[in-house]
Amino acid sequence: MSRIAQLSLGYVNYEAGRAEVRWGAHRFRYAALLARVRTDDGATGLGVAWAHLDDELKYAEASRAPLAASAIGADALAPFESGRLCQQAAYNSGVARAGSVVEMALWDLAGQLLGVPVYQLLGCKRRSLPAYVISAEEFAFRSVAQFVELAERYVEAGFKACKFHLWGEADRDIAACRAIRKAVGDDIKLMLDPAGRFGREDALRIGRAIEDLGFIRYEDPLTPLDAAGYRWLASRVSVPLVVNESLRWGLEECAAAARAGTVQGFRLEIGRAGIEHGLALAAIAEANGAELDVASLAPRGGLELCLHFALSASPTRWFEHHEALGLEELPGLRPGVFVEGGLARPTERAGFGYEVDWAELDGHCTWFT
After folding, report:
1. Does the pTM of the predicted model rise above 0.90?
2. Which domains does the chain carry?
């Protein structure tokens, strides 16, 4: 029986030479938190997620000891059990994000040892997904014409669905939605994600406008703190509401909202929430006829996790494909996800399907072992 013999946590800052993306006061940071697990017979699994921390090096160093206590010695073919123990240890130690990255590495390792892709271990529901597309370019747009041009390019590239954030200004956003719909025609699926920037009255006005335009999703129109506002809005619009990318709502709150018809879907940042939490949310969504949409703006490695999880989750209908201006690429990792003609597929390589050039990755990563 293979057992975990070593756990390393690391941090990669690969910001140099990359385009900077700003959205209002927010700036995308190009940093990744990594976990590497090795067995006593030399097999290796890798987990990757965004860091989003103030001091990644100290965090990675401090996270290793409590997680190693749970991971080392565990059965390498029991990622459910060992992943749960690591998540609990991470939660108790205040390092929950690191727990999710280690959990991912354990699943990658199990797939490597068994010679199968992780989505098959999680419960294969499909082998590909239609992709909707979103681009980091839009954060710099100033005109409706730029959004129309972008939408037309999406369609020419073969995508059948696309999503926009727009400006978070009601009148401008409605005008842009109308122009986009006119440009792409009625057969293209459209989604709007205001990222929680509207108050109730503007959210209602825009919701009714995009209903008329045949949009299939209205994502996070209100702040996640306004649960009462979502109940108010749901009774006044028919466009499906998809919420909770920020993970502010717990599983019980999500279940209650889905049962009541307050929302028709949930967003899931799987690299942050972890696989066990994702499976629980998928079960809630499936039991209540809701959609589960995996937020897939992730670094290479984490991106593959997003697709593998989506392929295994019954209520997932799309893969979110980001034109991320290269922000997702990580030194030493080769893709395990391909999007062609509007369809997302994994490689059939074992684990999460990415290839690792360890020499290149180690040249950019500071590891704590």
Report:
1. yes
2. 4-115 (3.30.390.10), 121-349 (3.20.20.120)
